[in-house]
Amino acid sequence: MGKPGNLCALPCLFSCLVSVLLAQRVKVLHEVTGYMGKEVVLPCEFAAATSDIKVSQVTWVKESGGRKQNVAVYHPDHGPSYPMEGNQSRIHFRTPSLGDATLVINPVRMADEATYTCEFATYPLGNEDGATNLIILANPTNTAEAKEVKVGNTEQPVAVCTSAHGKPPARITWQSTLNGNASVSQVKNADGTVTVISQYSMVPTKEANGQPITCVVHQQTLLQPESIPVTLSILYPPEVTITGYDDNWYLSRSDATLTCSAKGNPPPSQFIWSTTSGPLPASVEVQGDQIVVHKVDASVNTTFICQATNRVGQVSAEQVIFVRDQPAKRQSSSAGALVGSIVGGVLALVILGAVVVFVFYRRRPRANKGSYDPKMRVFGNGNAPPPVREFAELDRPLKAAPGRSQEEYNDYEEEEEEEEEREERPPPYGYAPRRLEDEEERYDQLGPMLRLGSSCHGYEFDDMESQHDGSIISKTAVYV
């Protein structure tokens, strides 16, 4: 059963191989891309394997939408003909011959997009052909512009970008720092191209007027994306102020001026001057957005009104004028006096601060270790010496101490009085501490009394030693 099937398949395989071999005789490109309005070339050549094959005619056939139509025909006896065009002005053979049937279309149209078959009538093989798909691309025309809109509270398109008559359709994006949204629509044209329209919408404000945004078009025929800048145009009524009044208009002053400063979109084109008290005084001359008072008089003592107008609306501003009998003091003098007083006050504060800092550092104790300031009663290390209590206060309760005569006590008391006088007189250079020998002599004198166990308030003892009678005594006493 399998063998008859294989035998049936052999003729089919042989037929396919013959078709491939025959098709290889016609040399064409499978696909050709053309740009609308430019020239496109469809190559086609016949390569005969042997000289026994004769070519009698060449024909190009266009197939589009299931419909076939002869485009160009070449016969060696009748020459070339172009049934679709009627002449060779737009479509023609590059070199009319039976071996080279290359076709040229210039300029190519979008309607030329189709499948083109190049056929060779041969003997004894019959017709041999090759097909080429012609794809037409269209380079779009890209534009962008701002749309004039009035200031409002509703989102509306403020700019539009158009990529017209392109194929394939373009892709449009926006570059902007504003808070807006983009919308896209497409229109298919009769010639097969596509027009893409993108609108940029936002809530229009006067702050957005004059702001730049950019339309960016991406399309296959462009070597790189095309950027088109747009400057927004938001219409808003004038903003008006009156300048020129210096609060020093006095009788008989000459050439005093007021200027109506107004901005808007579009710029104000009309200015109307008036006063709240009636028509303009006779001494006032109107010069567009400015009025000039040639000589100030009492009639100028009024309120001037400037009204500015553009396509969006009318806005006015007022300026009250006070006419003085005499010129006011020069503002520059009073201002100079004010500045001078401020500078003087600041300078005085700086000097005062410098004096305080100087006195403070002068009164600070010296850093020399061990030095003593008799006025401050502190040592150089910042510690005050312990207060010295008078020996007379300590010795009076010891007069009746056993083992001590009255004469010895009187000598001791005189010595203490001399010591007190020396302490009251400040030494010439800092604090003069007592010598160790004096302290040891004082210890020898007070020893008998201290061993009695008397209560000597006001002393602190270091280096305590135990005596033979059980009392505790220190060789060095520090007075507090």
TrEMBL record:
Annotated membrane topology: Single-pass type I membrane protein
GO cellular component terms, semicolon-separated: adherens junction; plasma membrane
Residue ranges, annotated region (Disordered): 395-438
Subcellular location: Cell junction, Adherens junction; Cell membrane
Predominant localisation class: other
Residues annotated as domain Ig-like: 37-118, 140-231, 238-322
SUPFAM superfamilies assigned: Immunoglobulin
Gene3D superfamilies: Immunoglobulins
CDD domains: TM_EGFR-like
SMART domains in the cross-refs: IG (SM00409), IGv (SM00406)
Feature: compositional bias, Acidic residues: 408-422
Ranges that cross the membrane: 335-361
Entry's Gene Ontology BP terms: cell adhesion
Signal peptide limits: 1-23
Keyword Transmembrane included in the entry's annotation: yes
Keyword vocabulary terms for this entry: Cell adhesion, Cell junction, Cell membrane, Disulfide bond, Glycoprotein, Immunoglobulin domain, Membrane, Repeat, Signal, Transmembrane, Transmembrane helix
PANTHER family cross-referenced by the UniProt entry: NECTIN-2
UniProt family annotation: Belongs to the nectin family.
Protein name, as recorded: Nectin cell adhesion molecule 3
